[in-house]
Every structure is written in structure tokens, then in C-alpha cells.
Amino acid sequence: MIPAPIPANDAARVQALRALAMLDAGPDATLDRATRLAARLMNTPHALVTLVDADRQVFKARYDCDLTGSDRAISFCGHAIAQDQPLVVTDALLDARFADNPLVVGPPSIRFYAGVPLHTLDHYAIGTLCVFDTQPHVPDAASLDALIDLARLLQQSINLRELELRNTATHGDKLRQAQDEVDRRQKRLADTLETALEAFIGTAEDGRILAWNQAATDLTGWSAEEIKGQRYQDFLLIPEDRLAAATARDEFIREGRTTRAARRETEVLRKDGRRIAVEMTVSPIADGEQILFNLFMHDISARKHAEAALRQSREELQTIADNLPVLIGYIDADYRVGYVNAIWREWFGKDPSQVSGRPLQDALGPDLWLRAKPLLDKGLQGLKLAFESTVPIRNGERTLRLTVIPDDDHQGQTRGVYMMIIDISDRKRLEERLQREALEDPLTGLPNRRAILRRIEEACVRQTRHPNPVALFFLDLDGFKGVNDRFGHDAGDEVLREFARRLREAVRANDVVARLAGDEFTVLLEDLHDERDAAQVASKIVGVMRAPFVLHGEVLHLSTSIGIALRHPHQPANPGALIDAADAAMYAVKRAGKNNYGFARDGDG
């Protein structure tokens, strides 16, 4: 076993992990749901969200796993956090790092593992989203990509928690600063400042600043000495807010309202001219015959940046989803479209916004709906399934692969399904072409040796139902080597193509003509009455090949020699032996003078 490596920045990494206060906290429903979805995406029985501490690994969320953690030294996730890319171990028993690992040779008997590192905002790898199985796996690219996407969403949730903790810490510092300022202020503002959590500004009716705490200085850069006596609207408010603020202030004064506070998000100006985002609460209070205004502000720049980052991340994820050559969607339990990506427009001619929230039946049309509904029914029953079908879409008939993944709530109730539909038309065509090429001679287009062996096997099976003789001809061109020597191989290829054409025309449509190699050909005939039928066909072929071959103005006189092997129903099915027998019979014809045919004798081949 090779222990998990320790990164050079491990001390800082552990400190960042512990700052999140997640290691020994209670269960987290978001993390639990992520493990369930990860197990379904990867089709594995087990999934974990792990946190890798200094010397231990904590299983923060578990799906179908009784263990709560392990030593870091034997952890798979300790290896995973040491690299930026996902760690995939298809068979731990074959991997030198894990073959004798206690987690492999003992419970939980890990054979397959896939883990995606989870990072803090400062890019410290603190743990993983991982799946494992007791059987070896080779995951497909689509499932692994889905696991990575899920890990990124989970990482965003952890990063938001990190931002909230940082913001809370910042707020605590400002509270202590504000409290210190409260202690130094006059008694008239003591009660108000004692409740201030953020920057506090007290103003007169006309906006003149009467009170200003240290948090306001920290927020704006203006000191109390610089700002007191000035009108806050002239120094702090951005120009586009000044008229609305004056109107609201005048309304408060006119109506004498001193009980209702107003809160809004806006921007204020710092001393250096920069704008910062704040949440501002304006609270009017009565002071004799006049109304004073208390303004409380706190900096929400970090939150705004986090929201913008999250929004950008969602937009990027949406952009990625919209540019994938895959239809991704979500259908709820009422068969309504919750989401589809942009490929819907390409396939069905409608913008995703036009179908969102609508019944899927309306979006697909009656024909496709009837084909899709049985699959969705099974998905809504909690079954994950995949299905291939050829369907008509906007771009024509295509072969699609549909994967349906149930979306279960914390009680295990299925509330909808995720759909992933991949156009595999090109792959299917490639598979068909490769299969065809594997069984076809590229020069003549005839079946090749592999194909004729298969055809002979199939003929032997049919012969058990129709017990008539089967004949195999083995032919070659007499004098073909001289053609190659005199005219070259390109000319020889033309002769072979002409030979193949004549051969096809000389036999029945259901007879199989194949090219083995060079100038060697075979013909498979079924349902013969006796060897006279085979002799009649062979005689015809010999006669056809006696006709002159014309090559670049040259007249060539060639011929063919044919060996014939018969198989009767009671004989063993051995395609190779049948070919060898026909081959031996052909060479016997050549030795006897060529340009003829002959039958295999007992013992040939």
C-alpha cells in the first residue's frame, strides 16, 4: 500500500477546513442529497462527502455506508485531494497504491472508486465527493462528467458557507468597534448606539451629520472630525439617489412619521470616490419638535460579489449546458417541464422558455409523448434507466439514447426525473460501417473470410431444418500472377473486380460469393438436391471465365479452377475444414490441367 501523500500546504489546508466548522457538526441535508444523487449518476451502491483532516478522514455525508471515517493514511480521498483532476480507480486490487489497503482487503471492500476534490475559495482541497463499489467499474465519460458537475455545485454551497462565516467574522469586528464608539459618545445617543450593529450616522432634519461612529469611518474613509456638520447627502449619497432621498425625508417630516423604518440596498460614496454596496436602514426619531434620522449601514460588497460569482457560475454552467450536444432536462411528478437546455430549440424548434412550466405532452406532441411516457413512468417510480430509440425530430430521424434519473426528496419520495438525451446517430452509423468493413472485402465489396465462415455456420444451422446438401466452391484465377507481373497490381485489381462481377452473375441471388485473399474466392450454395446441381453451377462458372478479359485494350485469356466440397446434414459443422477440403480439391484440378472443376475426396482438408 502507498499511503496518501501530504501536500506541502497541508497545515494551511487543515486550518481552512477547520475554519468551516463542518468536521464535527450535525447532519447536512444538502450533502446527504448530493451523495444520493452521486450514487444514482454513477450507478454505484455507495457515495460519500468526505473531509480530510490532519490525521483522519471524516465521512460528513454517507449513502449506504456504515463507516463514519478512517485514518487519513489509508484513505482513497487523501490521494484524490493531492491532484486537481478526479481520481478514478477502476479496480483497486490491480492498483499498486491500494491493492493491500485495509479498506480494500477488509470492510468496506472497495474495488471501484471515483472522487472529485472539493476546494475552498482559496483553492485548498478539503475533501471529496466520491462513490465506490465492491465490484470493478469502468465509468463512461458522461457519468463522470455528471459527477464532476455535481461536485462543482456542492463546492459552491460550501463556498457560500465560507463567505457567510467570513462576513459574520467581519460583522463581529465592526460590532466591537461600534461598541467602543458607543462608550465614548454622549448619553443622548447612548441608547441608539448600543443597538447599532453597523456603521451609524445620526442626522438632523436637513441632513447635517450630528453623530458618526468608527464603523462609519471604516466604511467610508471619512473621520468624524471631517464629516460632522456636513450634509450626509452631499458626501455619501450617489448622485442618482439624492432626489429620491430628499423626497422621502420631506415625506417623513411632513407626515411626522417616527415609528416606521425604511430599509434598502444601495451604493454610497467613499472618501476616495469609490462606490461600495451597502444595506441602509433609515429610522426617524422624535427629538423635541424636530425629527432626527438614524442611518445604519453595513457593507454587503462581499455578499454582492459572492452573489455575482454564484450568478456567473450559474450562467457559466447554463452556458456549458446550452452548448453541450446533449439534451438535458427536468420533468416534475406532474409531467411538467421544469428545465430544458438550448439543444431543445435545435431538436424541436422551440425556445426552452416556451416549454418551461408546460405539460411535456404539449411540448413533445402526441407521437413522441406516447413513446416517452412509459419511460418517465418508470423514472417516477424511482427507477434509473437508459433506452435507445430512433425518433423523428426537427433535423430528421435520429437515434437517441435517453437516460432517466429519479429526483428523490429526503424522505425517498420521487418528485421528478432528470433526463439526459444524447444523439448517437453518428456513433451508430460508425458502428455499422465498422461492422460492415470487418465483414467486407474492400476491393470487390464481397464478403471476406470472416464473413464466409459465419455464413457457413449459419448454413449448417439451417441445414438441420432443411436436410439438403450444402456446397462450397474454392476458386482462383489461372494465370493471374502473370497479369500482375506484366501489367502491375492496379491492373490486377481490375481483373479481380471483373472476376467477382462475373462470379456474382453466374450464381443465384441467394448464393454467397466471397473473396478470401488475392485471387482466391469462394461460393456457398444451399438447398442442393445432389452433387449434380453443384457440378452444373461450377461448369457454368468455368465457361463464364473462359470469355476474354479486356484490359487497357489488351485481350487476356484467363480461366478458373474450382474445388467443390459438399456437406451433408449428418456431418459435423466445421467451416474451416470445409474450406480446406474445397481448397485441396481446387489444387487437384490445377494439377490435372486447370480450367475445370472437381469434387473433394474423402480425407481432403
From TrEMBL:
PROSITE patterns: GGDEF, PAC, PAS. CDD domains: GGDEF, PAS. GO terms for molecular function: catalytic activity. Pfam families: GAF (PF01590), GGDEF (PF00990), PAS_4 (PF08448), PAS_9 (PF13426). Gene3D superfamilies: 3.30.450.40, 3.30.70.270, PAS domain. SUPFAM superfamilies: GAF domain-like, Nucleotide cyclase, PYP-like sensor domain (PAS domain). Residues 185-256, 313-367 form the PAS domain. Residues 262-312, 385-436 form the PAC domain. Residues 468-602 form the GGDEF domain. PANTHER family: BIOFILM ARCHITECTURE MAINTENANCE PROTEIN MBAA, DIGUANYLATE CYCLASE DGCP. This is Response regulator PleD. It comes from Amantichitinum ursilacus.
